[in-house]
């Protein structure tokens, strides 16, 4: 079948799907596009002992490079632009594949076809490439290529008797025909920050020392410290008789004495056994989940006993990676982005809550979020899921694989979290870099600016896909000159030197901490006090979050106990703290009316304003928000 199409417009679908990139940019890599292949007399380059599709750094449409196809007249050739994840991707529901060409020679052409999931090929479609010096968009309808399921690659092949080929190709994308521009992910924090979030970039750290051994100095002026809650945590020693079973409450009480808030990592399913089969078997077991929900009830009751405000809960590290990856050692062909397809035994949860949640992962997420908010209603809680970058394949790992693979992974994870629904998504999304310090994990985990840019592209895809702020978790506490080479990392230094990289990547805070045993953790100051000194110095003048990301819904703000607000004419006075605090006032529309560090009781002149206003007070150990009405 012959098809010559240039910027062909197709009817828009009723529901927009995420565009899927096959080739955007490999960072001007002279070794060509990783994972592709090329045959015939077409000019090629070698990568890993095989011929791959070459790129050029000149004449690009966007990014740093473009595909460069050159062949003599009549020469036989073909090349396959494989999916960046090296996994099949679904194309059902999509309308077309689009790419831009720049023809440096005479009018020519080639055929386009899909390599399907089963390694067979679709019907080849002839594509005409007009002569011309400018970039031109080519659109090939998906339906005409003979598949509506899943594909492994887009193949280009020579036409019999064709003239010489000398073209550049850029921005190869599968689209739904709506022009939704889903790949144009903006920088910055998405969504609305929790009401109790400070106006500056939040910092916390792992403090898993025994109760009674933690120090104020180790907190380095941070806002939170965190600890794991696992099956065995119920048996941990605690000072409250009977000296076990009260660990979480006593940890929170100690946090209060140290001047920090408590974050807990709910780590049960991912720790009970690794792999898709093990996790899904436990989720679908009535006995296992009855114990699971009973323990969650104990956990929440312990936080109530602890008496702190604004707890933070990190839900189930590792579990999401196994679920999105699917069955098999290397993951299923197509990653799972639908939590409703995973059965969960919810009978015990429904009994505890008196409600009926669906017996799947969506129902599970809705229960976990709602139960925490209900139990901690008077204290406040920030809760979110902790997905894993390895749950959707990025060949070479996050920070090193292709840019397009990071987009695939981030968008798939966002769809999975969105599958929990508005009531199950939570307040923020937690993400890690890896489970070891870079000094243990390997040299490839010391990223340059390109590696960090890919990581932040991945987090931006999640943040803007879910409309939720990002929070770093288990970010290594090591530094590049640590006395022990195994404990070296550069995450802390990267944040201190380039904080805007993090806010551009969707982050509003970081919880630093070691992962597996052997990682840096400075309860013992094994770095000579480097982490404590550097982070304490940062806390003296923390990064103010971008104004666009700091807008909260004032109707959701909770007035903290001890803050008094008095309005007189066009002035506002706030009282109830010692020393200096950062005070911000916003209008009902979110416009910033006032931002200043000041003492309690000082007048805030708001001019000729009327109606309700939202205010926030951020001071060491105090983060309060409320609203008042101007006459």
Characterization of the model:
22% of the residues lie in helices and 26% in strands. With 631 residues, the chain is of the alpha/beta class. The chain has 3 domains: 20-175, Jelly Rolls (Sandwich); 202-549, Aldolase class I (TIM Barrel, Alpha-Beta Barrel), CATH 3.20.20.70; 552-630, Immunoglobulin-like (Sandwich). The protein has an 8-stranded parallel β-barrel with strand order 15-16-17-18-19-20-21-22. Strands 1, 5, 6, 9, 12 and 14 form a 6-stranded antiparallel sheet that branches. Strands 2, 7, 8, 10, 11 and 13 form a 6-stranded antiparallel sheet that branches. Helix 4 runs parallel beside helix 6 (347-353), helix 4 runs parallel beside helix 7 and helix 8 (403-418) packs parallel to helix 10 (449-466). The radius of gyration is 27 Å and the shape is globular. The termini are far apart.
Question: What does this entry show, briefly?
Answer:
By secondary structure, this protein is an alpha/beta fold.
- CATH homologous superfamily name of the largest domain? Aldolase class I
Q: How would you classify the helix and strand content by structural class?
A: alpha/beta
The N- and C-terminal alpha carbons lie at a distance of: 73 Å
Number of H/I helices: 14
Gyration radius from CA atoms, angstroms: 27 Å
Q: So, CATH architecture of the largest domain? A: Alpha-Beta Barrel
CATH topology grouping of the largest domain: TIM Barrel
Fraction of residues in H or I helices = 10-25%
* Unreliably modeled segments: 1-14, 547-561
What composes the largest sheet? 8 strands, parallel, barrel
Total beta strand runs: 29
Tertiary shape: globular
Instruction: Specify the CATH class of the largest domain.
Output: Alpha Beta
Give the strand line-up of the largest sheet: 15-16-17-18-19-20-21-22
Mean pLDDT: 86
């Amino acid at each position: 079948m012959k098809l010559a199409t240039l910027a062909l417009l197709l009817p828009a679908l009723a529901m927009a799907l995420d565009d899927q990139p096959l080739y955007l940019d490999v960072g001007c890599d002279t070794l060509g596009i990783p994972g592709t292949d090329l045959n015939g007399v077409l000019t090629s380059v070698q990568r890993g002992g095989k011929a791959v599709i070459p790129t050029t750094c000149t004449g690009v449409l966007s990014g740093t490079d473009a595909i460069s196809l050159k062949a003599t007249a009549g020469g036989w050739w073909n090349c396959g632009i494989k999916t960046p994840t090296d996994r099949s991707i679904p194309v059902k529901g999509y309308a077309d594949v689009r790419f831009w060409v720049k023809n440096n020679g005479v009018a020519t052409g080639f055929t386009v076809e899909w390599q399907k999931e089963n390694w067979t090929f679709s019907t080849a479609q002839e594509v005409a490439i007009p002569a011309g010096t400018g970039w031109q968009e080519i659109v090939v309808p998906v339906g005409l290529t003979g598949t509506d399921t899943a594909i492994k690659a887009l193949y280009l092949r020579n036409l019999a008797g064709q003239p010489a080929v000398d073209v550049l190709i850029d921005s190869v994308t599968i689209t739904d025909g709506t022009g939704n521009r889903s790949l144009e992910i903006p920088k910055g924090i998405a969504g609305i920050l929790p009401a109790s979030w400070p106006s500056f970039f939040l910092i916390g750290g792992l403090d898993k020392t025994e109760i009674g051994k933690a120090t104020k100095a180790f907190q380095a002026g941070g806002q939170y410290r965190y600890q794991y809650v696992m099956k065995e945590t119920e048996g941990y020693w605690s000072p409250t008789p009977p000296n076990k079973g009260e660990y979480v409450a006593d940890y929170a009480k100690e946090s209060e004495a140290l001047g920090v808030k408590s974050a807990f990592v709910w780590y049960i399913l991912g720790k009970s056994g690794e792999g898709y089969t093990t996790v899904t078997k436990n989720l679908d077991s009535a006995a296992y989940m009855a114990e699971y929900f009973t323990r969650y009830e104990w956990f929440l009751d312990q936080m109530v006993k602890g008496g702190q405000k604004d707890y933070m809960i990190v839900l189930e590290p590792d579990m999401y990676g196994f679920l999105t990856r699917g069955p098999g050692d290397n993951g299923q062909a197509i990653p799972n982005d639908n939590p409703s397809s995973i059965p969960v035994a919810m009978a015990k949860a429904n009994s505890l809550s008196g409600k009926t949640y669906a017996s799947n992962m969506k129902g599970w997420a809705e229960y976990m979020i709602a139960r925490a908010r209900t139990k901690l209603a008077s204290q406040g809680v920030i809760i979110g899921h902790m997905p894993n970058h390895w749950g959707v394949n990025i060949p070479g790992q996050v920070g090193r694989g292709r840019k397009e693979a990071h987009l695939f992974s981030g968008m798939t994870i966002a769809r999975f979290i969105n599958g929990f629904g508005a009531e199950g998504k939570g307040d923020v999304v937690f993400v890690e870099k890896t489970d070891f310090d870079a000094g243990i994990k390997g040299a490839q985990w010391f990223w340059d600016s390109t590696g960090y840019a890919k990581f932040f592209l991945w987090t931006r895809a999640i943040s803007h896909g879910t409309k939720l702020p990002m929070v770093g978790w288990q970010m290594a506490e090591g530094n590049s000159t640590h006395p022990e080479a195994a404990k070296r990392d550069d995450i802390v230094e990267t944040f201190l030197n380039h904080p805007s990289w993090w806010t551009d990547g969707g982050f509003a805070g970081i919880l630093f901490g070691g992962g597996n045993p052997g990682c840096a953790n400075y309860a013992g100051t094994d770095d000579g006090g480097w982490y404590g000194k550097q982070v304490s110095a940062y806390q003296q003048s923390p990064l103010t979050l971008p104004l666009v990301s700091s807008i909260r819904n004032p109707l959701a703000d909770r007035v903290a106990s001890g803050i008094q607000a008095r309005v007189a004419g066009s002035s506002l006075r706030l009282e109830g703290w010692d020393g200096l605090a950062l005070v911000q006032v916003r209008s009902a529309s979110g416009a910033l009316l006032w931002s200043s560090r000041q003492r309690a009781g000082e007048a805030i002149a708001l001019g000729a304003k009327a109606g309700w206003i939202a205010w926030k007070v951020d001071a060491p150990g105090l983060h309060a928000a409320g609203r008042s009405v101007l006459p």
